[in-house]
Structures are given as C-alpha cells and as structure tokens.
Amino acid sequence: MDKKLNWGLLSTAKINRALIKPLNASKQTRLLAVASRSISNAESYAREWNIPRAHGSYEALLADPEIDVIYNSLPNHLHAEWTIKALHAGKHVLCEKPFALTLADVDAMSQAARETGKVLEEAFMYRHHAQTLKTKEIVDSGALGKLQLIKGAFTFPLTREGDIRSKKETGGGSIWDVGCYPISYARMIVGADPVEVFGWQLTGEGGADESFVGQMRFEDGIHAQFDSGFKSPSRSMIEIVGTDASLNIPDPFKPGKSNEIILSRGDKQEKIKIKGGELYLGEVEDMCDAITQNKSPRISLEDSRGNVAVILALIESARLGKPVNPAYS
Ligand SMILES: NC(=O)c1ccc[n+]([C@@H]2O[C@H](COP(=O)([O-])OP(=O)(O)OC[C@H]3O[C@@H](n4cnc5c(N)ncnc54)[C@H](OP(=O)(O)O)[C@@H]3O)[C@@H](O)[C@H]2O)c1
Predict the structure, then answer these.
(1) 104 in the same domain as 183
(2) Which residues pair with 216 in a beta bridge?
(3) Which of 93, 111, 235, 259 is the most buried (most CB within 10 A)?
C-alpha cells in the first residue's frame, strides 16, 4: 500500500490512549487529527499526543477532506448518531462497543454503511487477538467434545463520580460496558445467537445497572452464564466446557503479548502458551485491510447486531423477571 490511511479521533475519550500507539506504529495508518467539543481541549490534547491537527467540533473533523477513517470513541448514546454522520461524510468508521443501544440504531448504521460503501466495524479488540483465534480454533477442532457451557465474567470497581458508564442517559450500565464482552465471547464460541435469555440486575442511583447476572440458552443444549458489574473487584474470565474437556481463559478480554490458557481433561491439565501482538493493533489493521483490500471485517454488522439484540433481551428479562426470546428480526 503506498498511501497511509489518515485517522481522526472523534473526541478526547480516555480509551483513545489505547489506539494512539497502534495508530502511530502501524505502517498502514497515520493519526492525523483529533476533535473535541472545545478547541482548547482539542489543541492541548493534540499537543500532548503529538497529533498534527486539532478540530474544535466533531463536524469540523468530519469535514476534514484528508481524513479517511474515524475512530468513534464517544459515549454509548452517541455511537449511532456520529457513526452515521461520519459515514455520510465519506469516512470509514471504527465504532466503540457497545455498537448502539437499540436495534433501530444498528440498522440505521448498517444502512448508512451500505449506502455509502464505507467500512464500518465495532471495536471489539479482543476478537482480533491470537489468544481468541486459538481458543476458537480449539473449540471448533472438537478437542473439548460437544460444547456444553460457557461461563464468563467481567467486573471492576467503578469509583469515578458522574462517569458516563454509571448514567442511563449516556448508555451506561455494566451490561453495556463490560457484560457485552462475555456475551460477545459466548456468541462467538457457539457461532450462533441464543434462543432464550434470563437476567437479573441491581440498579444504581444513575438508573443504570451496577451489576448484572445473565444466562443464555442456545440451540443444541448449549448454555452460557455471565456476570458483569461495577461494584466488585477487577475480574475477567472465560471457561468453556465440553463433554470431554474444558478450557480456562484467565485473561480473555485484554490479553497481552504472552498468554496462557489451560486445557483440562480429567485430572490432567495442559498449559497452552500463546504469543500475542499489541492488543489494539488488531482492530486497526483489520479496518485497514477491509478498506484497502476489500476484505470483510472480522466483526460483521450482523454479529454486532446480534450482540445488541441479546443485551436488550437480557435487560428486558431483568425488567420483567422472566425469560425472554431475543428479537433478531
Ligand atoms: N474497547 C475498549 O477497551 C474500551 C475501553 C473503555 C471504553 N470503551 C468505550 O469507549 C467509549 C468511550 O469511553 P471512555 O471511558 O473512554 O469515555 P470518556 O473518557 O468519558 O470520554 C468520552 C468523550 O466523549 C466526549 N463527549 C461528547 N459528549 C459527551 C457527553 N454528553 N458526556 C461525556 N462525554 C461526552 C468527550 O470528549 P470531548 O470533550 O473531547 O468532546 C469525552 O471525552 C465508550 O463507548 C466505551 O464503551 C472501550
């Protein structure tokens, strides 16, 4: 590829820091601009992170003709609106998880991507990591026997007052913020969406859930269970159980450069070592490959839609106090 793709950061969100290093390191990308609602904020951010251009509004970034790709790191309730605006401004978009908060929004985002012919992908970085790919390969090889159960957890103590993750109006709630990972992981491992879900939640002062416990039933007798929360210590795990063996992934969502997963068969345990790359480089390169080589992004829009549908069904189940069949159409 002779021309680098110019990326622009839509906001000065904390998560940008995870993307800045890969964007500067990749041979395919140049981090050209950042936008903030205030020009002084954009300028000081650009100085701090050595970004050539600062824009004082999101509209100005979308109007910048040299930008090829937008990284949408806005709060959850703004993902759909600004992704659609960016696509119609002729930009490709890597949009943070959770992709959107309603199926109507997911569909409008997908329609905008179709109409404009631009690449749109959800930023689930763990999906591109060697550990995730190896885990999926082991399950698909039949090494665990018939798949029975996937258990997962993602919790951490959220202590910052007024954080967007604790407020319902900004799309907060632990299920949207971190529960989306074990849900996404289980759906990826099964390779299908659940037919029935059941959830319980504890809601905080901001109106969003502070902890969520959920179950999912897939076709073929496969089940999944997970918990997410802001009031527990930092925990993340996935366990995949088959009829013959089980696989433990102690660090499933933020794997590093050197990782270990454990295959247990009877009383024997095998530690499988996996070398991984820079965690967030995978999603950056996947976007670039989709743009320059016309490849399908690893995370399809149907996949992102399925995750949102399952989250919505789990929230509905918690509200009703009974199982719900997710609406996929
Ligand atoms: N993939 C991952 O590993 C990962 C990790 C953390 C978060 N995330 C996702 O990334 C997104 C951002 O999360 P974050 O924790 O980085 O957010 P954050 O630090 O709170 O930043 C959000 C940014 O959005 C802009 N903004 C626009 N309207 C806003 C509003 N009404 N309230 C607050 N901010 C507003 C602000 O930028 P300006 O002031 O510059 O306009 C703000 O800096 C979320 O969707 C989250 O789920 C992903």
Answers:
(1) no
(2) 197, 224
(3) 93
Q: How far does the centroid of ligand 1 lie from the alpha carbon of residue 83, in Å?
A: 14
Q: Which of 96, 236, 287 to mutate to test the pocket of ligand 1 (most atoms within 8 A of CB)?
A: 96
**Distance from residue 324's CA to the centre of ligand 1 (Å):** 31
Residue 164 CA: nearest ligand 1 atom is 20
Domain C-terminal end among 123, 139, 172: 123
66 and 143 belong to one structural domain: no
- Please name the amino acid found at residue 141: S
Predicted TM-score (pTM) of this structure: 0.98
Model confidence pLDDT, tens digit, residues 150-199: 999 999 999 988 899 999 999 999 999 999 999 999 999 999 999 999 99
Give distance in angstroms: CA of 165 to centre of ligand 1: 9
Last residue of a domain, one of 70, 91, 123: 123
- For 205-225, the pLDDT digits (tens) are 889 999 999 999 999 999 999
In whole angstroms, what separates CA 21 from the centre of its chain?
19
